[in-house]
Design brief:
Length: 285
Amino acid sequence: MKTISINKFLIDHTRYDSSPIKSPTANNTPIEMPQLRLHERFSEFMQIDEPFKNSNMFKDMFALQPPNRREQIREIRKNFKRKITVKTVAINTKPINENYLPKQDKFKPTLVLDLDSTILFSTQQTSDVKMPNAPETARFNDGLTTSFRAQLYPFLQFCRDNFEVVVWSAGEYDYVQTRMNYCNLADYVDYVLSRNHCKYVNGHYIKDLNRLGRDLKNVVLLDDNFSSCILNVQNCIPVRRYMGQQDDELLQLVIMLRKILEYDCIVRGIETQMDVCRKRMQTCE
Ligand SMILES: [Mg+2]
């Protein structure tokens, strides 16, 4: 098995301020008490039940109809941001304006790609039982069987040709690393971020795209989980949840991304695909 270059994993072992307690870097290392207290306070303040009521928020979001949809999305984000900024400013001991990614040498729009249930699916069941139709499955040392979504390699090749590719998973570091090592998947991506880079809010791992250090006008996030993208809804293309089934979702995403790339501004391109997104989400289970 090929070893992935470690500099692709931009992990910061000191960044516990907004990271979950059960952090990949904390496998066998207890978190120091001041940091733990900090985290407890963070969690305590982040009592946000809305808009995380269920995992079908994508459906609800895309069910909203113009002309009010944009205003409603803006309102949800504004309320969320207000809560999160007020509280974090009070409890963070370190500035959090440091970017996760180094500067780009040459401009490319940035594609942030979720891992679980977007391009792969992991289960404790054996592949024989759970995923008879999955195109490719592998058993890993952590006891999980992971299935990779159909057309994954052509999809990643397309992404690599057209975007700076950042895999950002809410999974723990070791889990993400082993999956990205598998079959050279890491060769298709520029950077890998894991759970430590997420904000942990009321049981949800949130990917705050503002932390990437990229112009958000040219960032797109592909994710199956609405709560991941609540801070950057305008950047998100919802992905049909993958649970080991045979489907053509990744090819559908390529078609959509091609259209989005026709625009100078990626966010404007995403906006033009809202109707398509809405229809796609309505056909989800
Ligand atoms: Mg996911």
